[in-house]
Amino acid sequence: MPFHERGFMSGTRGTMAVDWEQRIDVKRMREERKDRALSRMREAGLGSMLLIDDPNIRYVTGLAMTGGSGADHYSLLLEDGTVVHWDTADHASNQRYNCPWLTDVRYACPGLGNVPRASGRDSARSFLLDKMAQTVVDALDEYGLANEAMGIDTGHAGLLDAFESKGIDARPAECAAVMEDARKTKTEDEIECLRQVAAICEAGFQAIVENAKPGARESEVWGDAVRELWRHGAMAQGGYLTSGPNTWPKHQANTTDRLIRPGDLVYADFYNVGYLGYRSCYYRTFSMGEPTDEQRDAYETARDNLYAVLDEIEPGKTTDEIAAAFPDMAGEHADWYGADDHWQLTTNHWAHGLGLQLYEVPLIWRGLSPDHPIEIEAGMTMAVETQEPAGRQGVRVEEMVVVRDDGVELLSQWPVEEITVIDY
Questions:
Q1: What whole-number distance in Å separates Cα of residue 63 and Cα of residue 47?
Q2: What confidence tens digit (pLDDT) does each residue in 134-184 have?
Q3: Which of 78, 161, 196, 251 is the most buried (most CB within 10 A)?
Q4: pTM for the model
Q5: Phi/psi class of residue 101: alpha, beta or left (left: φ > 0; alpha: ψ in -120 to 50)?
Q6: Domain boundaries, the chain
Q7: Do 286 and 423 touch, CB atoms closer than 8 A?
Q8: What CATH number labels 188-422?
Q9: pLDDT digit string, tens, across residues 76-102
């Protein structure tokens, strides 16, 4: 299937706010996301949903959830569209001032996560869990929804028991289905966020080209790249750079203090780099000087395997059909690993959804898709990745895409036809 041609100026506007050009409309994006979750919540027969998972909170509230010490922030979406949000004292005070679209912000009780874990007392943990549940029950009473079913995006047994003891019908399965359905396809503003984060990653790749040289440590070059990401407004919460023999198999420590040497392959994975919360996953491979024939052949194999999968992705196809385009066990070099099944080779060759977190729906993988297929839909966004050994080294290649009716659109733009040569 042909590739989708992106629209005029798509993915090329700046990251700053201006009054002279329409860019990402963050207000529209917040409202469309919340409306999606709200309509699906109503269809599921829920009167409210308690969201504890950070990406779900951001999806509905727009708040820049960056992780914390546990469930010290949580949000309740009500059937009339009202959001009640609980957060730490400092964050809640800030949100009341800076987030006028949230009209009911309260102080949270951290009933889950590291705070109760660190208390050292079961009695303390019980107190915090019960208090957290009570804050939500109080809000449900105030809004007249205590007798309606409440979705909840965690299956934590203790929290569910606490709600049950207070007469709340808490339903984790329904909530999970609602949020999965709302988030699996993306709005145009969400897609533009992913285009922007891809462009920022490309600035990081350029920093690697400019700073990688024999004698530089992996960690130094990675630091130069991460500095560039932050300079462009990204939040770098993951990723790595690796070189030489650390590229096959991928080193368990990811970035190390290894000195880069002439003839090395180097690859970088910009994963979990966020722009307005939307996460990248974007591999490229570089060679220190002209690559050998073996290295060129390995790169061409990985690239061709990647594009064979991209050719299969279109709305209406199922993930089992597409997964068949990924390498078989021989192509996975299963003998080298001593592996017997594809499920043992997680992350080597697959496609996974992109959005406010890694990973989202869909997942296309020989280890899962043949027996558990789902249908691909227009508006899904994903990263497709492959790898191939080259002697004692290896290459990895990855593209970020969005599914369109007329083929996938490439969000990633760093040249992929040939390996990037670094002339030092």
A1: 22
A2: 999 999 999 999 999 999 999 999 999 999 999 999 999 999 999 999 999
A3: 196
A4: 0.94
A5: alpha
A6: 44-183, 188-422
A7: no
A8: 3.90.230.10
A9: 999 999 999 999 999 999 999 999 999
